[in-house]
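Progress note, project year one: complex with pyridoxal-5'-phosphate.
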Amino acid sequence: MSYERFFSHAAAAMRESAIRRMGTLGARIPDLISFAPGFPDPAMFPWDALREAAGDLLSGDDRGALQYGPTRGYGPLLQTLEPLLASRGIASTLDQRLITSGSQQGLDLVARVLIDPDDVVLVELPTYTGAISAFVNARARLMGVRQDEDGIDVDELDRAVARVRAEGRRVRLLYVVPNFQNPTGLLIGHDKRRRLLEWAEKADVLIVEDDPYGDLFFPDSAGPADTRPLKADDTAGRVVYLSSFSKTLAPGLRTAWVVAPEPIVQKFDVAKQAADICTGSLDQRLVHRALGAGLLAAQGERLRAHYQGKRIVMERAIAAWGPGLASWPRPRGGFFLWLTLPPAVDAERLLRRALGLSVSFVTGSAFFVDGSGHNTVRLSFSQPSEPEIEEGIARLGRALREELESQLPAGGSSADSGISVPRG
Ligand SMILES: Cc1ncc(COP(=O)(O)O)c(C=O)c1O
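Model obtained:
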């Protein structure tokens, strides 16, 4: 029996995440080295501290540890966010904070509470697929705005708003990932952050600032001053700020948070009641204990050095392909390296070839809302070990050379086609 006729219009428009799809595909390939998911390295999870805290919490002394809790979040954790936020320059009251089940839920709440069907949402080109899914599910129209090397082009934002309004449609919000963006790794510059806040005021829109990677700056090229959130300077109350413990503690804890003007948080609270009643009580207590023990600061130190090391290994391995095969902006933090390949390369075809050599990645086009980016690729260096990165990048280089060679005219040479295929 076909169930199509039972599905809602919203369900018909829903899109499966390209990254999740890659996970299912990859599971069937032996010896696969995957650069696809933006997963943290499980070797870096604070196992010992969490084991000890979990044992304590499950002693039964705190009956709330396995009970329903407030939808807003576990009170002591909401309190503990204050110094953490202050260290990022953000002043907030308790009423402006809400715990979410991952920042992904924060994005879903944004979509439910702030978007009507056909509203326009402005996003970076390219942008995070999970946000695309949440906004598409709310039947928003997504409009992409190109980025320079220091992030989104503010003049282009102005033009986009003018175009949308001339068509009689409404722009609700701009979604940005200012720190080590997923997928490009880009960092929005200081001056641009200030201009974005001014722009939001002038254009009368909200900014949704998604910041899961801000703590993961690489000491060789960035510091805390570079990652100061827009929210820290949001005197006008234009910014909805999302952050998460997924990349710094562990994503399995599904604990993240929102800071936003109180009326917005109140609506998020009501919407969350219908979604999950509350974020896991045990998870929130574990995070609270971790923060109390100073674990976040310790993790930050370890993770910055660890992921910077992996980025160096990945860059070196790609450079060994030889010149002319790929270019990328050097990530100054985060999990991702964003490759632009020669225009003749189609990343979908490359992926099929790469899977044959047991290596995977996410095709860049998944992150573009305008259908472009056919020759771009997102590589995540966070999860594989350094030897796996070396081996996987060597395999990918082989796949890329094979793909380019397959495009040479029969009997011709690379000189005839204008494609140069370096050896190495
Ligand atoms: C930019 C961005 N936002 C949100 C998320 C979701 O994170 P969480 O595990 O907190 O739901 C991710 C995860 O990869 C991300 O990269």
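Residues 370 and 412 are 35 Å apart (CA to CA).
The two ends are 54 Å apart (CA to CA).
No further modelling is planned for this target in the current period.
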